[in-house]
Amino acid sequence: MPGSLPFYQKHQRHYDHDYRSSETQALVSKYRASSRSSSGYPAHTCTSGGYPAHTCNSGYAPHICTGHGLTSARTSTSRGLTASSYSGLEQSSQLTKRAKATHLAVDREHHIIGYVVPIFRGSLEFAGGYSGVEDSRLKATSASMWGQDHFTSGLEMERSEVSSRKVTIRESAERISLSKTIYENEEHNKRMNKDSLMHAPEFVIKPRSHTVWENQSVRLHCTLSGWPNPHVVWYKNNVTIDPIAHPGKYKIESSYSVHSLEIDRCDFDDTAQYHVSAMNAKGEQSAYASVVVKRFKGEMDTSAPSPRLGLVSEYGITFKTHIVDTFGVSFGREGETMSLGCTVIIHPNLERYQPGVEWYRDDVLLAPSKWHQMHWSGDRATLTLTHLNKEDEGLYTLRVTTKSGYETYSAYVFVRDADAEVEGAPGAPLDVRCLDANKDYVIVSWKQPAVDGGNSILGYFVDRCEVGTNHWIQCNDTPVKFARLPVTGLVEGRSYAFRVRAVNKSGMSRPSRTSEPVAAVDAADRARVRGTSAPVTGQIIVTEEEPAEGVVPGKPLELEVTEATKNYVVLSWKPPGERGHEGIMYYVEKCVSGTDSWQRVNTEIPVKSPRFALFDLAEGKSYSFRVRCCNSAGVGEPSPPTEATTVGDKLDVPAAPERVVATRNTDTSVVVSWEKSRHAKDLVGYYIETSVVGSDTWEPCNNKPVPGSRFVCHGLVTGETYVFKVRAVNAAGISVSSQESEPVLVKAAIASPAPPFGISVLECVRDSMVLGWKQPAFVGGSDITGYFVDYREVIDGMEGQWHEANIQSVSDRAYRVCDLKENKKYQFQVRAANMAGVGIPSLPSNTFLCEEWTIAVPGPPHDLQVTEVRSSSLVLLWKPPVYQGRDAVNGFYVDIKEAGASEEAWRGINKKATDGKFIKIENLQEGEKYVFRVRAQNNAGVGNASEVTEPTLAETKAGTKEIMVDVDDDGVISLNFECSAMSAESKFVWSKNYEEISDTERIAVETKGSKAKASFLAPGEEDIGIYSCSVTHTDGASASYDLTAEELKKLLETSHDHKFPIIPLKSELAVELQEKGRVRFWLQAEKISANGKVDYVFNDNSLSAGEKYKMNFDKNTGVIEMIMESLTPKDEGTFTFQLQDGKATNQSSLVLIGDVFKALQKESEFQMKEWVRKQGPHFVEYLGFEVTPECCVILKCKVGNIKKDTVALWQKDGQDIKSDQQLSFTEGVLKLEIAQISKKDAGVYNIVLKDDRGKDTSTLNLTDQGFRDMMNEVFSVIANSSTALKITSTDEGIRLYTFVSYYNDLLQVTWHYKDSAISFSDRIKSGVVGEQLWLQIKEPTEKDTGKYAIEFNDGKGGLRRTVELSGQAFDDAVAEFKRLKAAAIAERNRARVKGGLPDVVTIQEGKDLNLTCNISGDPVPEVTWLKNEREIVSDDHLLLKFESGKFASFIITKVNSADSGKYSILVKNKFGTESGEFTVSVFNHPEELGGKK
Prior knowledge:
Elements: H1 7-10, H2 22-36, E1 45-47, E2 64-67, E3 70-77, E4 80-85, E5 104-106, E6 112-115, H3 129-147, H4 154-192, E7 199-205, E8 210-213, E9 218-227, E10 231-236, E11 239-240, E12 250-255, E13 258-263, E14 272-280, E15 283-294, E16 320-324, E17 330-333, E18 338-347, E19 356-361, E20 364-365, E21 372-376, E22 380-385, E23 394-402, E24 405-416, E25 430-435, E26 442-447, E27 459-466, E28 472-474, E29 484-487, E30 495-504, E31 507-508, E32 518-519, H5 523-528, E33 530-533, E34 540-543, E35 557-564, E36 568-574, E37 585-592, E38 599-600, E39 611-615, E40 622-631, E41 634-635, E42 645-646, E43 658-664, E44 670-675, E45 683-692, E46 699-700, E47 710-713, E48 721-730, E49 733-734, E50 744-745, E51 757-764, E52 769-774, E53 786-795, E54 798-799, E55 803-804, E56 814-817, E57 825-834, E58 837-838, E59 848-849, E60 862-867, E61 874-879, E62 891-898, E63 907-908, E64 918-921, E65 929-938, E66 941-945, E67 952-953, E68 964-967, E69 973-978, E70 988-992, E71 995-996, E72 1003-1008, E73 1011-1016, E74 1025-1031, E75 1038-1043, ...
Parallel strand pairs: 1-2, 8-15, 17-24, 100-107
Antiparallel strand pairs: 2-3, 3-4, 5-6, 7-9, 9-13, 10-11, 10-14, 12-13, 14-15, 16-18, 18-22, 19-20, 19-23, 21-22, 23-24, 25-26, 26-29, 27-28, 27-30, 30-31, 30-32, 33-34, 35-36, 36-39, 37-38, 37-40, 40-41, 40-42, 43-44, 44-47, 45-46, 45-48, 48-49, 48-50, 51-52, 52-56, 53-54, 53-55, 53-57, 57-58, ...
């Protein structure tokens, strides 16, 4: 009903259009249509965008809209209205016209992007759900039939009831089938969705450091993993590398996951630290590598600094960093762009040195992103905020790091709300974050805005957008007041971004800044899943623990209510230990306290995450909850129920802060402090508001909650009076405002000074005393105009009345109090005065006796001051004692000790008394506090010590600068000092030798803003001294410069050079040889204008361009050259180049006489001959040899400038051995291979290269030493091919052996035992078998244990292979030797049948058969005869004999047919058994034998 809509829907037109998806608009249309339609439910048809419409004609036909490629189906469900979008995913199994719609939403590519959130969840018309519609239809049908009983027969009534039941059953079956299809589609897309495994970048291979020669190229490369694909940026010394800005210098490539940076032709400037940064939505990683560029020996440019690595200086310089030209407190508005910048001065200024530059907001390091862009130009650091949001508000800090430390500068940036789109609408929420992300939901939190538009904020709407799209979907239908909201309906594995809008009765705010993307993945799944993204295919390989199959899941564990508000309750639990094969899902049930009726909350689709948010609970009621697990095997038992939970906000809005106090700070800011809210929980921070007194208009001072209880409110109008109030913020809301502060006038704070201290007596006479004291620690923001001294008399411990000692203030910190009484006791107090008035008096001093001093030594010095404090030094100033003693003061001693140390810790600074009134104290320990005192001396001795100074911390304060000496173009010498911490009342005070300068005739002082300059008008010896500059009303800002006589001399020379300049030279006059022996004289000027001129002089005679001399002058590069075709004896002498550019001049000479000239002339002639030789075929590389791994010797040379007619002739000892008549133009190397080198191959090898243009010859002598050198190379290859020395055993002993790839008869090897060469004998022998070299040790004993080695001699160091024959290795070898020896003995002595027996014996019946065989064996074998494998014995017919242990006889007398058969003899002893077999065949007649043949 239109009248029931909330006001924020009625007034906000864009709410119903811009922030609703097409699915939601379809639901609203259906909702409105359903309220007007009758029970007939006619079908509707709609078309959009030229797509054909679809029509449904069911009894309750859903309204189907087709437009822009997206189809939406709408029907009622058991929980109210739902929306369904389906496309190509369902084309393979089309739903029937009566099928129930799904809850899925798809995009244009038909990818499931989430659930459609039903709106008007609490609408009464749809509270009954699907079953309510079903019941109402049955009741309506029954009532109609009852009302028309006299018109309709009973048969028709029964037919109508049966048809209604069939419709209900069919719809239920289709709903179950569709739910299964939805689940399968979800699981399919979850597996196919890459976003489900988003992870931060990770370096698989990091770039490694390189050291290269100058002019070489170097490539740094790395391999990355990460999803989404990381964005890669390369840096050099923390400065982004831009290949476009340096064309040809840098080349950056990315191929799949391999990223590389190539630096072409490295020079000294490329020595640096490089790092690569990879960033995606999940995080950022960096890896570092260094590149060092070296020069060849003899080419080092001494004028250039040595290579540096990162921030390390080769010179050991202490860098001093100054941050100047800083940004102040800045104000911006949402949507604007803001740049913050500072100029950074680093002294000394080394070229190519790159400091570390970092930016912080609220002490959190900022990284480059679409919101923040950093730039470093070499002397200026800039931070650009590309699109301001209130999240960008905070304290910004620039940190500049060098090897000597770091300097920082900070200022606050305020961001105001952008103009509201609707007048009176609140400001946008801020700091949107995603918490507790799971498979299908996430908790979104935010911070409330400071501006409510003049009306209370009624709540907030949360929008979501899938990463990669611009389609925003509203998540909640009614505004939530709590600054947290569980968002459900997410698609598992997808990534989402969120934003929040605030609403009041005037309208909707602008959306907040988009949150960081978050993936809808269960945290438990993240821990189990291990995936790797392939850069080419994008496939994801996942391994996950496989649970058991067919098991009904158990009870969920540790169910609890993690968050409860009046809008929702969040449940959390852990999966059970017993799980089925499939991933388990959950049903959530609720029960009103006091009842036993459990109601299932998610009846349609079980949830996948172990988290669940329940909405639509009755506020004030108490509920218990429980959870069941389910899978394909069934539904498990419920978990134990939770404790009763009452629906309502558990977090209260914080109480208002108290005691708001505003105090003056500067002329545009006020400091506001307050007492924190009492009993506040989960406090986010505070908002401060201000109003001009009388205006009743309140403006926010900050738009981002601030922690703590103090804040500096900037941007106020000087002279205006303001009041302030504070509100506290937590997730439940914003508290009411505190009481207003007292009005405060915006003006720089000035106060009366603090009291002086340290009152002491400097001198005492009969009726007066001189007092001294220390300056107040706080001067009140204004110069102290003077001091007032009071005194009182003390009688018997009783103090009298105070009396003024001076009516007019005194400027010094010492004063003589007169009109005192001798031998009386007095106390004193001092008050300081400034523009704000007279401060409170100091504490009363000690009691002093007024009596005349008569001591001979001087009194104590006074007014000690510490200035120019640094981390290791400071300067101490003092004034001489008022009381001189018997003689004049002639020196001072300074003592030091650590603050808090005992009196015994005092030690002297100077062993010899100094006559000055200042001293520089060095070698202090940084971070230590020190105190000082001074003693004066005269001829009588050393007097009492002064009062001890206050403790001073040895540190260099931020922003500390030193005095810089400068000589301008006119030669004026000046001292320059800058102070960045000045106030409006600050002044520069210049001193010489720590006495203020008053002589304006020698020095002119000039001040501009925060900079001061002292220029010398006529510098001379009178100006030698220590010059210092201090700044009043600062924290001790001061510096000094010691102008010594030597320094003054250098400055005067520099001044003269500036007045009378010279042309600087990059290089002096030098000579080099070019092609054809030409001689080039050249030099390079560092800078010269177009008006520059050059005169060329030889032996005081001017030269001019002509046939002999050619001159060139490139004024762009400053290169000046003179070229001569050749040198003759007449050219010996001195060459000079004279330069002139305006009033600047310079010259450079080169002397070429004697041996230097002769060597140059000879080299020129040689180069000329070389050029002539190279006009025809020639050798680029002369003949040499190399040895291949196969020990072949290859003679080769490299030739150039050949053509088809070029001929190469090979010769050995003057005889042709090879001729290459035809050479291709592409062939550049000639080779001659000598296989199996031997002595016969020694000789002198020549190769002649010739054609019609000339010839060239190259010779290689391979005789005597040449041959030995070559063979040594062969031996080296053989040695390197040898295998490790190994141990084996034989039946004779132990053998050590190694294999080589090739053996040469000339190879010399030496066997060593315990580092001594082995003397060979019958027991120890060596030899070669094929490629095996061996050493045989016969009958080894314990004496043979030790270290053995084979040494290959190659004429150099040789190669030695060693093996240790001892311990277990020796024992194993000996045992194997004994086994083999025993086996050999057994083989020799075992029983054997050596021969004499035929295989077959054919004999005529009646004949005698006599066979004899030899038998051997030790011991004598036993002999057994067998016939047909049966043992036979000797008898009269068959006689068996064994004689002498050697001969076995087999005799058959008068053989007959029965004697035919297979016979065998078996011999046997303890070493073995052997047998011999033969066959006897008996025949009757000769014819039978012939027939057989």
